[in-house]
Every structure is written in C-alpha cells, then in structure tokens.
Structure to design on (446 residues):
C-alpha cells in the first residue's frame, strides 16, 4: 500500500564529487545505493537529496549496503544543523519536509503535521502563493490530515490548491495526486458525487500515469475509488426512488415510526397539521442562510477559531459559505461544519432540577464539544445546557448525530420545519425532494 508521500523533488542537486571520489555530475541522485551510502556516511550529508523517491524506494534504500543510520535520526540531525547554521527558509523547508515524510512513514502523523505546517509557512513566506513548491507542501499536509481522519481540514487545504493547479500548473504530476487525495477525503465524508467528478478529471489528466507511478501505484487506484463512489451514489438514488414523501421512515436513536409528508404521525389521525412548515424543495434547503450570525470553530488556521462574523454568500465552486468577520472585515470561505450558528431564540425545555427555567428563551453563543453543552445567554445570565434541554427554532439548519439503527443519516445536514411538543421530536427535512424525519432534540446539533 502506498503512503502517498513523496520526498522533496526540488532538493539542491547532489554533487557526486563530494563522496566516494565520483565525478561531479551536478544532478540529484535517485539511486537507492547512493542514498544508502549517504545515509551511512552520517547526518551531515543527509539533507533531502532524494529527488523523485517514493516512501517505498526510500525504505528499500535503507535496507541496502549496510546502512546504519536511521533516517529519522539523520534528518533530525540535519534539521538541528540547519537551524544552528541559520539555514535559509527555503532550504530549511526542504529538510523539514523530508523529516515529515520520515515521521509519516513511522506513523508519527501528529509530529509530521506540525512540521508540514511549518513547511507551508516557510514556503509561503519566501515564494509566491501560486508557486508549485507551495502547492506541493499543501498537498503533503493534506495527506497527513487524511491519515489523521481530519477530512474536512484536508479538503480546506486541497480545494484552493486544486484551483491554483488548474490555473498555473495544469500539467504537473502533483495535480492528479492532489485530485486523488481530494477524492479520498470527499468519499470519507460521503460527498460521493463530488468525488466522482474529480476522479473522472484525474483519470483524463495527461500526467496521471506518471503521477501514479511516482507513488508506486497505477491508475487502478483511481478507478477503484471511482467505482466505490459510483456504487454509493447509485445506492442513494435507489433509496430515493423507493422512498415516497408520504411514507417516510422516521427515527431517533431509540425509536422508529412513520409519518406523512407534513410531519404528522401516520398512526395518529388527530395529529395537528401545524406541527410542520412547508418543505423547501431546493438543493439549498440545508444551507445556512445569508445574513446569519456565526462563530468559526475548529479551523486549521487557529487565529480565526472563535471569531464571529456574518454569512454574506456561498461559493458554489468550493462548496463553502463566505463569512465576513466582525472588526477587520476579513472574508473567509468556510465549510458549514466549521460554522456555529448563533441562534437568537432557542427555548429551554425539559430541565428537571430547575423547572422554572423551562420556557425561557435565549440566544446560543457557543457549543463545548468536551462537555456536549450549548451556552445560552438568557436575560444577561449564561447557562450551559445539553442539546436535549434546548429547543431550536424552526428554519434552523442542523446536523444529525448519534443515530444507532440509521447510522447512514449521521452527519447529514437538515432543516427544522417544525416541532411536535407532545412527543418531543423535531420534524426535519433531509433532502431536496422533501423527505422528512422525526428526531429527538439530542439527535441534532448546530
């Protein structure tokens, strides 16, 4: 199985005359035996001379000709030596990048990610934003995020990188590699239709054969992933075709039932028709509306996490909301998962120890993932409440969580159309054709 990492292909060429009396050729070495000799010679000759080498060929090189120096030890020594010598930013980024690859090979992904963030910062500081080396650093960081199962963060890096590849480096072999990893992340977050589109483009790319060869793979990796995505899309279409709006299965974590298209319990002929509003028959039904107030959360760029702003639009190409931050007016394109809606009129319900709070209305100001509680501002006081004790208003976009027998719905974004107070269930639209589900309060989150 390929790792997907490539040692830096832009390293300063090795001068063969510096070791073993060989003639000065001025070309980067890719021969495993020569790499092994350089590693065994000591840390001072290690810095990133592995042009075009995959992780597999690197590993093979380390097993030849009596190599005695561990690559991580050697590269760490090179990083330390470079720092002491006040190595220039770009050269330092090469050393750090190859050490990150070695960490990834050893499954030390968190350490690798820290280095790759530094590499991106160093290269962005010394090179122009569209430079191919900046984009390569971004792809490497995204691959590590995928291994850490931080798929949304990976996509946050890969989406703008792909756009820059198309604009300036269409023929580079890293372009199809970036498309491959983007598709992997999209499949992991169940965005199969988007994955199909990008995989078809990757297979048609002029450099796809060379790209796959550079990581020790063939085009079958792309075709297998494409088949997987198509299978999911076809299965979803079958489910959609066989599910009629007037007979929709509804379910919470521990209950099953049936309801009609207006959210009424089909077994209860006396259910009120005011339980639910009209479904929004549009692909945009579950998007956070323009002018909504939001807080940014869990962003890759930590300096923006916790900032508050206003949704001012939606970037169709990137599939992200455009948020204008308060204060400096900076505009960021963010995934919906990275936005906490600051709902102004949430109602407190079901509190047993302090029943006098029930019925009070406040605004959601934050959500703490560690405690699983919203913070509500109610009449100047702040209260930490579980989702089960918060009734969100109609027309709020929410994400389904915690279902057991319908795990396929977890992570799905829906639109609250109403609330049945008798059974304590939201009526939620989950797709553009108006299919509804009935869920408990603790089965959805902002």
């Amino acid at each position: 199985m390929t790792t997907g990492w490539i040692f830096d292909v832009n390293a300063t060429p090795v001068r063969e005359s510096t070791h073993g009396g060989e003639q000065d050729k001025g070309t980067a070495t890719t021969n495993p035996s020569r790499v092994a000799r350089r590693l065994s010679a000591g840390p001072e000759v290690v810095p990133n001379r592995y042009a075009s080498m995959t992780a597999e060929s690197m590993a093979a090189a380390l097993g030849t000709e009596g190599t005695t120096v561990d690559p991580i030890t050697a590269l760490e020594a090179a990083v330390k030596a470079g720092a002491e010598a006040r190595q220039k930013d770009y050269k330092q980024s090469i050393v750090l990048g190859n050490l990150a690859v070695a960490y990834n090979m050893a499954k030390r992904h968190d350490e690798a990610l820290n280095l790759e963030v530094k590499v991106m910062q160093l290269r962005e500081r010394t090179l122009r934003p569209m430079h191919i080396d900046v984009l390569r650093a971004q792809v490497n960081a995204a691959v590590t995020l995928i291994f850490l199962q931080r798929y949304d963060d990976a996509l946050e890096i890969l989406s703008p990188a792909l756009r820059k590849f198309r604009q300036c480096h269409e023929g580079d072999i890293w372009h199809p590699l970036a498309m491959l990893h983007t598709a992997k992340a999209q499949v992991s977050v169940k965005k199969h239709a988007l994955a199909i589109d990008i995989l078809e483009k990757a297979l048609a790319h002029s450099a796809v054969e060379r790209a796959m060869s550079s990581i020790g793979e063939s085009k079958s990796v792309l075709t297998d992933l494409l088949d997987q995505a198509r299978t999911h899309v076809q299965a979803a279409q079958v489910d959609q075709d066989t599910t009629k709006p007037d007979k929709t299965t509804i379910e919470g974590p521990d209950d099953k039932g049936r309801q009609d298209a207006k959210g009424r319990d089909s077994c209860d002929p006396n259910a009120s028709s005011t339980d639910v509003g009209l479904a929004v028959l549009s692909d945009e039904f579950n998007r956070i509306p323009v002018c909504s107030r939001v807080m940014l959360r869990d962003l890759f760029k930590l300096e923006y996490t916790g900032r508050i702003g206003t949704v001012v639009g939606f970037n169709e190409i990137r599939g992200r909301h455009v948020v204008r931050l308060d204060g400096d007016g900076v505009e960021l394109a963010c995934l919906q998962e990275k936005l906490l809606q600051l709902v102004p009129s949430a109602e407190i319900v079901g509190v047993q120890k302090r029943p006098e709070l029930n019925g009070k209305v406040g605004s959601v100001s934050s959500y703490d993932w560690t405690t699983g509680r919203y913070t509500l501002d109610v009449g100047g006081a702040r209260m930490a409440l579980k989702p089960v004790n918060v009734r969100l208003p109609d027309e709020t976009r929410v994400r389904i969580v915690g279902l057991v027998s319908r795990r396929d719905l977890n992570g799905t974004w829906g639109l609250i159309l109403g609330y049945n107070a008798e059974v304590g269930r939201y009526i939620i639209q989950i797709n553009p054709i108006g299919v509804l589900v009935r869920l408990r309060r603790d089965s959805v989150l902002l």
